[in-house]
Amino acid sequence: MKKLIVISILVISGLLIAALSYVFIRSNAIIYKTYNVPLVDVVIPHDAVSMAAGKKIALTRGCFGCHNDKLSGNVFLDWEVGMIAVNISKKILQYSDKELFRLFRHGIKKDGTGLWSMPAGMFINLSQKYIYRLIAYLRTIPAVEDTLPNTAFSFNGRLKIISGELLSEVTMARQAVKKFHYPDNPTLIQQGNYLVLLLTCIVD
Q: What confidence tens digit (pLDDT) does each residue in 51-73 have?
């Protein structure tokens, strides 16, 4: 009888370990999937007007809401991904302008993996000129030290990733892509349509 109990415990333990291993291996394959999107040449402005415009974009896109007023990062432990809003003031030093442009345009990080926390859909439809200005402003942020932990995915979050219920930001951003012709000299109405209808307020 004792032998049977031991065997049952071993079998159940083995199945549990196998199930847990599958969840972590499968979810990691999705989480750390890389995207082959080449870098492109960019022209980042350095004038005061462009940088001021870039700050406005950072404000309207919510950069300061998630990363705090110094852009030194925040922790959101109640989220399924254990989201860490990174320290932009330091992280940006690791990125070239080309890599930053790809991050905003495609939701793809320096190492080629996709974002899982930053709402890339709010940036992917920005015009090239707007992204240039945003990068120009972010380059002016002074570096601030931090003690932020690494992003951690909860087990429930991993299950949702496997089931497709929880999608990467790069996937959602690609679904949110909209074709929009932004005129060289837009009227105030056209600017409002661009910032409100295209970028944030209306998803469909």
A: 999 998 888 888 888 888 888 88
